[in-house]
Amino acid sequence: MSDYDKMEAGEELNALIATQVMGWVDGEAPRGYRDDWRTPEGKLLDKEDECQFSTDIATAWQVIEKMQAGGCEWTMTGHPDGWVEVSFYHLKRGLFGRYTALMPLATCLATLKCLASKERPRE
Question: Among 106, 75, 114, which Cα is nearest to 13's?
Fold first, then answer.
């Protein structure tokens, strides 16, 4: 069991996704807002409105798109109780992560597990 298995949806998980996956940094907003993210392109995003990766399906799709852009493949399998299993894998780098929960949470945790997995030698 990884530390990610203990994480719940919310601010801490959203911040990990923002920094480790999306490449965002805490913004020093000239307009005076304290809780902004700055994207790699320099755009400022409100943390409360734009950073709901673990609880909002539309925002979780941004994570999937970012992982795909980085060369990861992914699958999603639905379960009758509303949960899904999300898996990410990067064949060239030997990375893999999977998690089952509600879609946004499963996406975030599978992503972090994939990025944290150790590279395995190819056979």
Answer: 106
